[in-house]
Specification:
Number of helices of chain A: 11
Order of helices and strands of chain B: HHHHHHHHHHHHH
Largest interface: A-B, 48 and 49 residues
Strand content of chain B: under 5%
Largest sheet of chain B: none
Shape of chain B: flat
Oligomer: heterodimer
Largest sheet of chain A: none
Distance between the termini of chain A: 29 Å
Structural class of chain B: mainly alpha
Chain lengths: 326, 317
């Protein structure tokens, strides 16, 4: 805007400055995100997935455990939109319940890893000295394992222990859910995935906090006498949060995939619990004669994972303007 | 160069000790008392202090922790991981690995070759035609391939390629050697997982190099576009791609679990899954440790090649 602002002789402004309305970081992020078509498509699917997870028992056309021996291995039809499985259960209802399982695991694991990762990473960076040394030591150790192998190892280790502890607690409290094998499968799953995954986020947060502490604007805050609490809540948290959110959104998809993968291997959520991975495993035995038993849960899983990848990418682009130009 | 290499190996060894310590602590203390478990197993679920104590001695469980750890570390380095107490005949875990690991290594190597041979050219193509149809097509296809879990991709690929399109002959399951026709499909499916990362990294790296001054200079002196890309861009863009190839090792390792199950290959992943399903803690610990070692060695190789390709890396620090 090269034109000079008209003023009266006394120098008062007659028209307001025509500057753009200031945009907040989040407003800017939302705007950039909305322009990314793949990201928006992913977001729609992701929201749908979460909605399904909440409403699955009510929107499922049949009971996911109900067997119908007159309709075994039927291909998709109007009555059974995804067909039926080897014991005549409605595949659509089972897929919906499987999504519910995966989302439940992903929600809990994502939040546990976020809380633990942020706390431990920030603790290492802010306290320093031997605390930091131990934090780095543990995280480096964890990050050198291929995640799925370590998760499976923890899974195999903790399963008997958790079963034993659950039995002991049951004997004194008589809470019925402690006798439910599916509930224990869930506990093992939450534990092993959280154990494996917090380190990635921890390292990210630690690095971010360490590099931010050296930045001039934090230095300036300290120089004008801001309290550590003010600096942390007003400057450190907002600057780290963006990266944490990106990690959480991709982590959510990865947790759903990991749940299905472990269930596929037979060490995750086991029957009667519903899991997409277990359904796919059962289907692979007969993929030639009944491809729908693999294809329906398989493609559902693939689409869900892909949508979370798109959302994560779009968020990453929106929150890191420097990468955006590429 | 030698100093750089020594420094890298020293770093790796320190991390190796941490990793071994993890597996040692989890394996020895994470699952309860092994001697107790074995006593109950041998003695019809009755506890017998005599058997228990002799077993403790046999397993060196009465020694101090540090001594046990050094023994564990020394044995692991020599490839001795003890025996499996779940499998009949308590076979030596090291010997089982000697049979299964070569199969997985060959399959994994084949997959890595495919990833590099397909991913890097595609990434370069996508970068050259930035934001055109070809770019979107390449990135889109590799996103679809990489996001599809291996255990979904294999049945779908089998159905499409073998039954519907009849491109490939009916696949023989089992291991037929590295250079047989039957190895192509499992290796290709295994390569699909890390493909997206390699395509993307190559693309970003090439785009980055294309905007450098020396590329402009090369164009200004009248080189054809292809010789600019061939001589100046690709060479300089390859170092970051190495990193992602190194990271792909972990994905290939995880992916091979599923590929081996679906194709019924008796490799390392298959051995691990049997151990997972049987609750065989000794074998699981050993396979987890070896998988971490493979990833660490792959990273070391990448760092070494980095040093060879980029003089700044070996001088720096």
């Amino acid at each position: 805007m090269a034109e000079s602002t008209p003023t009266t002789l006394t120098g008062e402004l007659t028209t307001p400055w025509r500057t753009a309305k200031p945009r907040s970081l989040w407003g800017d992020t939302a705007r950039t995100f909305a322009r990314n078509k793949a990201g928006m498509a992913g977001l729609v699917v992701a929201c749908l997935v979460i909605l399904i997870a909440i409403l699955a028992p009510w929107v499922a056309p049949y009971d996911h455990l109900e067997q119908d021996w007159d309709h075994l291995r039927e291909p998709p039809s109007a009555a059974h939109l995804m067909g039926t499985d080897a014991v005549g259960r409605d595949l659509l209802s089972r897929v919906l319940m499987g999504i519910r399982t995966a989302v439940l695991v992903a929600v809990i694991v994502t939040f546990t890893t976020a809380v633990v990762g942020v706390l431990v990473g920030a603790m290492g960076a802010l306290i320093g000295r031997w605390v930091d040394a131990i934090v780095v030591w543990v995280m480096d150790g964890l990050l050198n394992f291929p995640t799925l192998w370590l998760a499976a190892f923890i899974n195999v280790l903790t399963r008997p222990t958790i079963r034993r502890v659950a039995r002991q607690i049951y004997e004194s409290t008589h809470w019925n859910w402690l006798q439910d094998p599916v509930a224990l499968d869930y506990l093992v799953m939450f534990g092993c995935l959280s154990f494996v995954w917090w380190a990635g986020l921890g390292r990210l947060v630690r690095g971010q906090v360490l590099s931010l502490r050296e930045k001039e604007f934090i230095e300036a805050q300290r120089a004008i006498g801001a309290s550590p609490w003010w600096v942390t809540t007003r400057h450190l948290v907002p600057n780290v949060l963006g990266q944490v959110i990106v990690q959480m959104s991709t982590g959510f998809g990865r947790a759903m995939l990991a749940e299905s993968s472990l269930s596929f291997l037979g060490i995750g959520i086991r029957p009667p619990g519903a899991s997409l991975g277990k359904m796919i495993f059962d289907g692979t035995a007969t993929w030639r004669s009944d491809p729908h038993l693999v294809a329906m849960p398989g493609l559902t899983l693939a689409i869900i994972i892909m949508s979370f990848v798109f959302v994560g990418d779009a968020l990453n682009d929106a929150l890191n303007p420097r990468v955006r130009e590429r | 160069m030698l100093r750089y290499l020594i420094r890298r190996v020293a770093t790796m060894l320190s991390v190796l000790i941490v990793v071994v310590a993890f597996v040692f602590i989890l394996g020895q203390y994470g699952a309860g008392d092994l001697a107790m478990h074995l006593t109950l197993q041998m003695n019809d679920n009755m506890f017998d202090p005599e058997i228990y104590n002799s077993l403790r001695q046999q397993l060196h469980m009465d020694e101090p922790v540090l001594k046990r750890f050094t023994r564990f570390l020394g044995d692991a380095v020599r490839g001795d991981f003890g025996v499996s107490y779940i499998l009949p005949g308590t076979p030596k875990i090291g010997r089982m690995m000697a049979v299964s690991l070569p199969i997985s290594m060959q399959l994994g190597a084949a997959a890595m070759v495919i990833v590099a041979a397909v991913g890097i050219p595609l990434g370069v193509l996508a970068a050259i035609g930035r934001n055109n149809v070809l770019d979107h097509l390449i990135v889109g296809t590799s996103t679809v391939l990489s996001s599809t879990p291996a255990f979904v991709l294999v049945p779908v690929a089998l159905y499409l390629l073998v039954i519907e399109l009849r491109i490939l002959p009916t696949v023989g399951f089992g291991w037929h050697g590295l250079f047989s026709k039957e190895t192509l499909l499992p290796a290709a499916c295994l390569a699909a997982g890390p493909l997206l990362g390699v395509v993307r990294y190559t693309r970003a790296s090439v785009v980055d190099v294309l905007s450098q001054e020396y590329v402009r200079a090369a164009r200004a002196k009248g080189l054809s576009e292809w010789s600019v890309i061939g001589k100046h861009v690709i060479k300089n863009a390859m170092t970051p791609v190495l990193t992602v190839l190194g990271l792909s090792t972990a994905r290939v390792l995880s992916g091979s679990i599923f590929i081996e199950i679906v194709f019924n290959l008796r490799g390392f992943g298959d051995m691990a899954v049997r151990a997972f399903q049987g609750g065989d803690i000794q074998t699981t610990a050993a396979t987890t440790l070896v998988s971490a070692m493979i990833v660490m060695v792959a990273n070391l190789v990448v760092d070494f090649m980095y040093g060879v390709l980029d003089p700044r890396v070996r001088v720096g620090q």
